[in-house]
Structure to design on (247 residues):
């Protein structure tokens, strides 16, 4: 996957590009990330990229032209037509479904805003999509862009070592993943659930399914909306309501 990023602070992307899974995806050639700074496309010697809003009011607005040229310079470096995404609190909320939808794109351009945001004409003429990482306001689009890059990188085929782990992950099957334990068996007086030590794979699978179901039911019941519960899940709910499930 090819990702171009328009940002006033390209150096910030070292945080994801030089560490962990994204850096491994880059090194293995699964992912290519290119950066462009709109200041390099400013029209004046002060490299100005923002101006006061028409109509007055507080703050500054990022001008369309330097951003457009930065995005175009990136697009010229890829052979496919990139989907251009502006990161904004006004965008559609990022969730696993949106990640799955975007990861099939050959190329993306992510535009990180600052100040009060970007000129509306860039949004309507040179962006295909708008994505928010949550109902709160950050000072810039760099962290949202990094969040999206990380979420995408781990869904690119071949990037995660164990494809099996994806199948059980939170949100993949419309539920949370549930509890994990590792050594030591006894930690500060608390032991690991017996079933996980039994070596009985079917029992372990069933324990995990119940743990996932319980956690989703207690924390995010809305994830079950829109799909019917199967017979096992109905039994889990009955057990939980009776207070009888300790997964
Ligand atoms: N005035 C804007 C508003 O009220 O919607 C907020 C602008 S914010 C201070 C500056 C930039 O940070 C935005 O242009 C956007 O790129 C980015 N940003 C802030 N919060 C975000 C969020 N929750 N999701 C995605 N991008 C965000």
């Amino acid at each position: 996957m090819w990702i171009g990023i328009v940002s006033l602070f390209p150096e910030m992307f070292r945080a994801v590009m030089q560490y962990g899974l994204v850096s491994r995806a880059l090194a293995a050639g699964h992912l290519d990330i290119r950066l462009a700074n709109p200041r390099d496309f400013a029209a004046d010697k002060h490299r100005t990229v923002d101006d006061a809003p028409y109509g007055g009011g507080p703050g500054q607005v990022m001008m369309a032209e330097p951003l457009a040229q930065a995005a175009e310079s990136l697009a010229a470096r890829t052979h496919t037509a990139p989907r251009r995404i502006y990161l904004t609190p006004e965008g559609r909320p990022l969730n696993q479904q949106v990640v799955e939808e975007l990861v099939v794109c050959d190329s993306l351009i992510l535009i990180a805003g600052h100040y009060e945001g970007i000129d509306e004409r860039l949004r309507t003429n040179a962006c295909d999509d708008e994505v928010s990482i949550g109902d709160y306001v950050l000072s810039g689009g760099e962290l949202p862009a990094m969040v999206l890059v990380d979420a995408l990188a781990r869904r690119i085929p071949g990037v995660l070592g164990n494809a099996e782990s994806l199948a059980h992950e939170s949100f993949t099957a419309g539920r949370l993943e549930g509890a994990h334990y590792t050594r030591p068996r006894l930690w500060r007086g608390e032991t690991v659930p017996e079933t996980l030590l039994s070596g009985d794979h079917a029992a372990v699978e069933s324990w995990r399914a119940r743990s996932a179901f319980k956690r989703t039911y207690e924390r995010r019941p809305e994830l079950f909306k829109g799909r019917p519960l199967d017979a096992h899940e109905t039994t889990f709910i009955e057990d939980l309501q009776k207070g009888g499930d300790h997964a």
About this structure: The first strand starts at residue 2 and ends at 6.
